[in-house]
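Lecture 7 notes: from sequence to structure.
We start with the chain below.
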Amino acid sequence: MVEEKAAKEATKATLLGLVKPEAKKDNAVVVKAQSEIQKTEAVKDIAKVKTEAEVKIEVKPEVKQPEAKPAESKKEADPNKEFVDGIMAEMSLKGASKKRLIKKLGEQYGFDKQKVLFRLRRALITERYAAAHAEGGAAH
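Predicted structure tokens for the same chain:
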């Protein structure tokens, strides 16, 4: 308790000295004991530790890792889209259903271009065959 009062008085005197130059002259006459000086230094050390802890806490929120994850997912989506668009252009295909088919085949065969093109050609031939026979079958 006595130590706390002495520390408070010392800080009050310091603050008054900073604010009022006249109070500084009055406090200059007072001679402090060695133990009081050590106590004020200990209080200053504790204050430094607290400010360092506050600084460390403030630094941690600045690191934003969630932003890195969407950037990675965008990078993953781009090669798939480029793969699908490349095959669409190569085979002169149009339409969302064909895009979905290419994307599905790509996922199924690990985006191996040769396998996807083979299966896509087979699927398109089957589709044309079915469409031609559906028209012919209805005409008979």
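Points to note: The two ends are 108 Å apart (CA to CA). The mean pLDDT is 74.
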